[in-house]
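Reviewers of the previous submission asked for a worked example of the structure-prediction workflow described in the proposal, so we include one complete record here. The input consisted solely of the amino acid sequence. No template or homolog information was supplied to the procedure at any stage.
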Amino acid sequence: MDFNLLGTLLLLIGLELVLGIDNILVISILVSRLPASEQNKARLMGLGGALIFRLLFVAGAYWLVTLSQPLVGTYSLKDLILLLGGVFLLYKAVREIHHVVESPNLPADAVSPRGNAFSPIVGQIILLDIVFSIDSVITAVGMTRNLWVIGTAVLLSFGVILLYAKPIGDFILRHPALKILALSFLITIGVTICMEGLHQHVPKAYIYLPMGFALAVELLQMRYSANQRRKEVPAATDDLAGPPSKKS
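From that input alone, the workflow returned the following structure tokens.
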């Protein structure tokens, strides 16, 4: 058994899972603006699109690397795609934060007359899938030239993501603070993608470790608040019961 190849496979699976979580955040936030009856369909189409694009880019991985050749000045087609995708991600994240903060009582599946139809949202999901897929496959090709290893990592990580996409997405959308935190993560990711397009490499650890720490703190805060509410319920019940009666 080639342990170096196995180690690369495990590392790629971890990378794909991290990028898959990014996809889940984007898809969950976009589909939350659809009626509940259409959300699961849009989510599956978005995840299916992510898998298809990743596999297509894996199949043409060596061609994809040629996108790094200069096209406009010092910028390649890959750079331009990353820049446009990063800007679009920043726009969507900032817009959704504004929506959550300024319209807290508006239902999650409220559909406005413009821009929230099923097809445009699926189109936005596919556009961002392309950006994430290009980024992940080029990173994977930089780690190994074995396309079977890359393809296996994509398929295995997708199975995990497909299993947990709905629970994770629903959990985030049920908690406004967690949703704002997730949107803040997307802003960070959008900035990182833009910097990659500008030839400014940012180590992934510098991005995801602070994100993980912030998420852990928020989950602890949510746990603390839940425990406090459980303590307050019995106390309120005792107050309603009144003082104990004295026996004569």
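Confidence is low (pLDDT under 50) at residues 108-115. We consider this example representative of the routine output the project will generate in years two and three.
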